[in-house]
Amino acid sequence: MGNCGTREENAVVAAHAQVQQLHLLQQPSKNANADRKHTCMSSDISDPSTPRKVEDAKNISIYNDVIAFTLFELETITKSFRVDYVLGEGGFGTVYKGYIDENVRVGLKSLPVAVKVLNKDGHQGHREWLTEVNCLGQLRHPNLVKLIGYCCEDDHRLLVYEFMFRGSLENHLFRTTPLPWGTRMSIALGAAKGLACLHNAQRPVIYRDFKTSNILLDSGLYCQTV
Q1: Which of 75, 86, 151, 198 could pair covalently with 205 via S-S, beta carbons 3.0-4.6 A apart?
Q2: Residue 97: pLDDT band with limits 50, 70, 90
Q3: What PROSITE patterns does the entry give (predicted)?
Q4: Which of 15, 18, 17 is nearest to 212 (CA)?
Q5: So what's the pLDDT on residue 57?
């Protein structure tokens, strides 16, 4: 893979390294107990608890296209979380560049990824990690960054996202060469579509950290929101 951490790649951390402050709206239900099982309350998300017992992994909803990685597999794709694979750090923890393919697991599509590792001593904990898995695992839209997989092994909590090659919109707005207005309008429309998907989901999501640093661009400057 060569050395990671180029200027383009470092911009990705602006979105991937930040905690995703997602709150699920409580839905009315005739059965309060059943509703409690399937709806994340604000108290569940905001409590900065440390990682819990591995049995809590049973609370992860099952999604057909979200992969449950082993810690060994993620160590493999990040070369044991090498320093030169670091994209950046944030409130959640450290983000590493990685690459999954059939050498990691038979049948995996070759794909560059961003691996976010929960800081065990940080302010975010298992509840935030679990919320992110269950929120983003159920959402699939062209304008939302895709959650590829996760790892819940012992006290390790990791998230695996698709890697966005062009970094954040913020990184492009303040360059010497400005983005053409047509491109800006296209990005704005894509970001709006991503937000609309969150708001209109079966379990609506309030995204409280929407800003240019959290709008990511692929190799063709196609907008995706995280």
Answers
A1: 198
A2: very high
A3: PROTEIN_KINASE_ATP, PROTEIN_KINASE_DOM, PROTEIN_KINASE_ST
A4: 15
A5: 53
User: For residue 224, what are the β-bridge partners?
Assistant: 216
E strand map for 12-80: 22-24, 67-68
pTM score of the predicted model: 0.68
Beta pairing partners, 117: 94, 158
Q: Which residues are catalytic?
A: 209
What single DSSP character describes residue 119?
Answer: -
pLDDT at 9 over 60: no
Closest CA to 123 of 89, 162, 99: 89
116 is in an annotated binding site: yes
Phi-psi label, residue 93: left if phi above 0, alpha if psi -120 to 50, beta otherwise: left
Choose between 71 and 139: higher pLDDT. Answer: 71
Domain boundaries, the chain: 7-225
d(CA 159, CA 115): 6
Report how far residue 154's alpha carbon sits from residue 135's, in angstroms, rounded to the nearest whole number. Answer: 22
Number of H helices and E strands in the chain, helices first, is 8, 10
- 134 contacts: CB under 8 Å, gap ≥ 6: 40, 59, 60, 61
Phi and psi at 142, nearest 5°, equal -60, -25
Q: What is the pLDDT of residues 173-203, one digit of tens each?
A: 888 888 899 999 999 999 999 999 888 887 7
